Amino acid sequence: MAKHTYEDPKPDERFVRLADGDMHVVEDGEPSAPALLLIHGTAGSTVWWEPIVPVLADTYRVIRVDLLGHGRSSIPAGGFDIPTQAGRVGAALDRIGVSRVTVIGHSAGCMAATALAEQRPDGVAALGLIDMGPSPDAKFPDGLLARLLLTRLPGRLLWSLRTGAAIRKAMRTAFTRPVDIPDDIIEAAQGMTHRALRAAARASLDYLGQRSLPTRLAALGIPVLVIFGADDQRWRSTSAAAYRAVPDVRVELLPGVGHTPMLEDPQTTSALLLDFAAADRSTS
Fold first, then answer.
1. Is the dihedral of CA 84, 4, 172, 148 positive or negative?
2. What is the DSSP string of 210-253?
């Protein structure tokens, strides 16, 4: 698995200046190739995508971002709501000269991807969602540690005592297959403030609670791919059936895979994304 060094940015990394902070952007592939944007979930970062980037970058200009408050991006004073985060991603795309893109989100990143498509109907060619339930009732109940972490006072104290081992324990429901979690993933999560973690988690559920994802997607009129690990421990994989109500949708269930197909089965995941993105080669 490729390693991502935080101290020494790679040549294809940059920080894009936005109105309320700097967004960390990583690009792979030829700049002239069709653009494919990857958006991580809560407490995630660009490094969650690394196992599948080399395959995708053979054909596409692969763009990864750290949402503000995550990874190496700035921590904003406020504005963790999904439409605001999506607006920041859109502004970053403008700065790097991308006018049309296929967008792939993972987990809570699916909400930012959907909101971006809502805000830019002419700029998002197609949308891929990886392991995100269609509505709040599809979520498995959080364990005690996760519930405590998202409270104000006990959570802040717990977060102040966080260690790499504690972060790995909190992430255990993100994987069903055995995965050697890269240190960069742990470091990125440790780098978040408790305020950012709590606000980002709350914002995702707020957005999902306002309107279900299938309802939002049906209004967009663009191709949609839904990938779901059949053994996801965070969102009920049976809920993926609700997406079949969306016109022009393709739903793929991956047997034996959990919440994070990019790390658990990168070969199948990258093949599905390549096949899906190939349907719109006009991306620029």
1. negative
2. HS-HHHHHHTT-S-EEEEEETT-SSB-GGGGGGGGGSTTEEEEE
Class of the CATH-defined domain 13-277? alpha beta
DSSP β-bridge partners for residue 102: 36, 126
Question: Tens of pLDDT along 221-256?
Answer: 999 999 999 999 999 999 999 999 999 999 999 999
Q: Count other C-beta atoms under 10 Å from residue 205's C-beta.
A: 16
Nearest Cα neighbor of 227 from 107, 120, 88 is 107
Strand order in the sheet with 249-254: 13-18, 21-28, 61-65, 35-39, 101-106, 124-130, 224-229, 249-254
Lowest mean pLDDT among 31-35, 59-63, 140-144, 192-196: 140-144
At position 276, the amino acid (one-letter code) is F
Q: Of 21, 4, 167, 175, nearest to 106 (Cα)?
A: 175
Q: What is the pLDDT of residues 67-109, one digit of tens each?
A: 999 999 999 988 999 999 999 999 999 999 999 999 999 999 9
Task: List 103's β-bridge partners, or say none.
Answer: 37, 127
**Does the global pTM surpass 0.90?**
yes
Structure tokens at 273: 């994304």
Name the 3-class secondary structure at 103.
strand
- Whole-number Å distance between alpha carbons of 71 and 63: 15
Q: Is pLDDT at 5 greater than 70 in this prediction?
A: no
Confidence of residue 169 (pLDDT cuts 50, 70, 90): confident
Burial class (CB in 10 A: 0-12, 13-18, 19+), 264: buried
Q: Is the dihedral of CA 65, 260, 107, 251 positive or negative?
A: positive
